[in-house]
Amino acid sequence: MRLITDRLLLRPLRPGDEADVLAYRGRADVSRYLESEPMTPGDVEGFIAERATATSLDKDGDRILLAAELDGHVIGDVRLRAGRLEDAQGELGWVFHPGHHGRGYATEAARALMRLGFEDLGLHRVWAQLDPRNKASARVCERLGMRQEALLIEESRFKGEWGDLAIYALLAREWTSTRK
Predict the structure, then answer these.
(1) Please, is 171 exposed, middle or buried when counting C-beta atoms within 10 Å of its C-beta (0-12, 13-18, 19+)?
(2) Where is the N-acetyltransferase domain (predicted)?
C-alpha cells in the first residue's frame, strides 16, 4: 500500500523508521491529545512492528496506518480505522511532528486517506474525533470539508481530567459533490 500526494509518500511503517517516529511520537506536546503517553525508545520498535502490516480494512476493527514521508524522512502518520465493516465507516486520524505543522501536510495526507476510503473502499462516512482544544486538528477537519456533528461536554476522563470530545464527519455523497 503506497499513496503518493503532491509532496508526500504515504507508505507502511517499516524498520528503519524508529528515529523519525520517536522524534514526534516521543514528544509530550504531541501526545497531549493522544490516548498514549510520549513514546520511549523502548516502545518504538514494537509500535512499528505492530502497525507495519496495518494496510487493509478486511474485518471489523482493522486499520490502515501509513507513514507520511517527506524527503526520505517520516514526519508523521495517518490512520483510517474501521468499526463494523457493515456500517461502511472509517475513523480518520493523524499525528505529525510540530516542526512540520502549518504547511498543510496533515490535510494532504488525510485527504489521500479519505479518497482511498470513499473512492476505493466504498465507505459511506468518514469521521474524526478530537479534543476541541486541539484547534489545529479542528482546522484540518474543516479544510477536508468535514462538518462538526457533535460536541460532547466532559465526555470522559482523559489524562486525569474531564475532557470534551468533538466529532467531525463527511458522507460519501458530500465527498463526491465537492469533487465535481
Answers:
(1) middle
(2) 8-174
